Automatic annotation (TrEMBL):
GO molecular function: uroporphyrinogen-III synthase activity
Function: Catalyzes cyclization of the linear tetrapyrrole, hydroxymethylbilane, to the macrocyclic uroporphyrinogen III.
CDD domains given in the database record: HemD (cd06578)
Organism (species): Marinifilum flexuosum
Protein known as: Uroporphyrinogen-III synthase
Superkingdom classification of source: Bacteria
Length: 235
């Protein structure tokens, strides 16, 4: 591509006007096309009652979508903020803190790091694990292998969507979830010289199933991803 032009970046999720402005400022031309759609589930009353009555159980969240779903079905959740909470990632934790929960976040924002935390917890504590339909088995395998009592609550459904695009027009492709990676590569292949930028470790690992040209942003936000794109393409 002509190096005199702004580098053309595809994001596989929706961006804001501020993201577009920041991208243009650092020499990037952005387009966004979501590759997944999230459907929040209504949780049964029985599930909500279990959450209320099991005072000793700890709660585990690996996505802010789980928090959003729970809030819709359990609007007075802040009355139960004494529950011990674990969250993978600061964005998920922040949604819980808004409801007055104190949240434990592993140093590395992935399920393996969370399992390391859980191994240090007292034995005999039950867990509620709030998940989506495409979740990995890392946490449930840990529970089953160690005979830990838990209830998995599927809070949302991820639908894969694949817009029609001319992929070769882009200089880089950015991914914010493993599900978006799966959705994208089920339809498209990209040239080896096109870098794929991941928002975090779990997404980066999933990308390595499809390409070796993977970079990860320093922080788990869109601005950090844009800065990595700039370093790769404009330096």
């Amino acid at each position: 591509m002509d190096t005199g032009k702004l580098k053309h970046i595809l994001f596989t999720r929706k961006l804001t006007d501020n993201h577009y402005e920041f991208g243009k400022k650092i020499g990037l031309s952005l387009e966004d096309y979501p590759f997944i759609d999230i459907e929040l589930r209504d949780l049964p009353e029985e599930t909500i009652e279990n959450l209320k009555t099991n005072e000793n159980a700890s709660w585990i969240f690996t996505s802010k979508n789980s928090v959003k779903s729970l809030l819709e079905s359990f609007p007075d959740i802040s009355n139960y903020s004494n529950r011990k909470c674990f969250a993978v990632g600061e964005k998920t934790a922040e949604e819980l803190r808004k409801q007055n929960f104190e949240v434990i976040v592993p140093e590395n924002h992935n399920a393996l790091s969370l399992v390391d935390k859980l191994e240090k917890e007292s034995s005999g504590i039950p867990y509620f694990y709030f998940s989506g339909n495409m979740r990995r088995k890392t946490i449930t395998n840990f529970f089953n292998e160690n005979e830990i009592k838990y209830q998995e609550i599927e809070c949302y459904i991820t639908h894969l969507i694949q817009p029609d695009l001319k992929i070769d027009q882009f200089d880089a492709v950015c991914f914010c979830s493993p599900s978006a990676v799966v959705s994208f590569f089920s339809k498209y292949q990209i040239r080896e010289d096109i870098p794929c930028i991941a928002i975090g470790n779990t997404t980066a690992v999933k990308l390595l199933d499809y390409t070796e040209n993977v970079a990860m942003s320093e922080k788990t936000n869109i601005y950090s991803m844009l800065e990595i794109c700039n370093e790769y393409l404009n330096s």
